[in-house]
């Protein structure tokens, strides 16, 4: 049930914002996909058809990208690791693999979708969470290298070079799903909608009253409270944090975002990273990668690009908000000891 909290929080806060608007009642679908609870609220267009189409788009992607579904495209790719045979793949799976490799190149040592054997070693995949023996971790780490995931765009095929390698798209799949769901809604004439795909919040257009959506970023140390509230239109806010999935052993907390250099949960000085972008898949991938990168590298990367904004929450209770979010953003955690600052170019 812990995993349903982000959803409850988001919509709890958001519904407070929307009720003051035109009074339009949304049509809503809630469902479980990609190992998480998802919700879509639609405020106009062919609402029922739109919800059905968006849900189908997400479910279809889950069927391609899931690592636990033995019939998925990703499972087929994984099953052929090391046998030398390229696996023919559909356009969407190819796109997410190529995109993930590009993020790995942009942020070396931070993002690697061949992290799957390490996730298994920690028991995150099978819910048997434990600190792995060093030899098990070393064996798993020897299989993590997305340079050895060969993607052939011309042939629409991919291959994992080493036996035992496996791809895990947990860091990007929900962002890709957000894009597909967003497109499915728009095709049905929807111009105002709110999607929460397991902590990736995507907004279409504005609220029915014409004002921007107000999206809460959770306080990573009190996840049922807000850290700040953002004004968003046609964007995704994707948050990664160690508080989302973790276990404790001998009084130490171990979370699910792994530093591909060490095989251990990333300790970068950050408690959470929120990436806001109109590129939904970029937002998802970067929230994971920049959590591993840490605050300095994350801000330097932000400075080098113009296609996303950030909210960083550091271990020493600083909340760093990049300049593009300044207008309309509201701090909400001063009473819990947070201090807020704007990062400028
Ligand atoms: P997110 O919740 O989007 O930050 O993604 C976290 C998920 O991505 C984990 O549950 C793993 O499946 C996967 N993952 C963990 N660490 C990494 C990493 N460094 N690079 C890519 N994927 C990762
Ligand atoms: Mg992510």
What do you see in this structure?
- By secondary structure, this protein is an alpha+beta fold.
- It folds into 2 domains: 7-62 and 179-343, T-fold (Roll); 67-160, Orthogonal Bundle (T-fold), CATH 1.10.3980.
- Helix content is 31%, strand content 27%.
- It is built from 9 helices and 17 strands.
- Helix 2 packs antiparallel against helix 7 (173-187) and helix 7 packs antiparallel against helix 8.
- Bound molecules: adenosine monophosphate (AMP) and magnesium ion (MG).
- Adenosine monophosphate binds next to helix 8.
SSE inventory with pairings:
Layout: H1 5-18, E1 27-33, E2 36-42, H2 47-65, H3 73-79, E3 87-88, H4 91-106, H5 116-121, H6 134-141, E4 149-152, E5 157-160, H7 173-187, E6 193-197, E7 200-204, E8 213-219, E9 222-232, E10 235-241, E11 246-249, E12 252-255, E13 270-277, H8 280-293, H9 295-303, E14 309-314, E15 318-322, E16 330-331, E17 339-343
Parallel strand pairs: 15-17
Antiparallel strand pairs: 1-2, 2-6, 3-5, 4-5, 6-7, 7-10, 8-9, 9-16, 10-13, 11-12, 13-14, 14-15
Helix pairs in contact: 2-7, 7-8
This protein binds adenosine monophosphate and magnesium ion.
In short:
The chain is 31% helix and 27% strand. The protein is α+β, with helices and mostly antiparallel strands and 345 residues long. Helix 2 (47-65) packs antiparallel against helix 7 (173-187) and helix 7 (173-187) packs antiparallel against helix 8 (280-293).
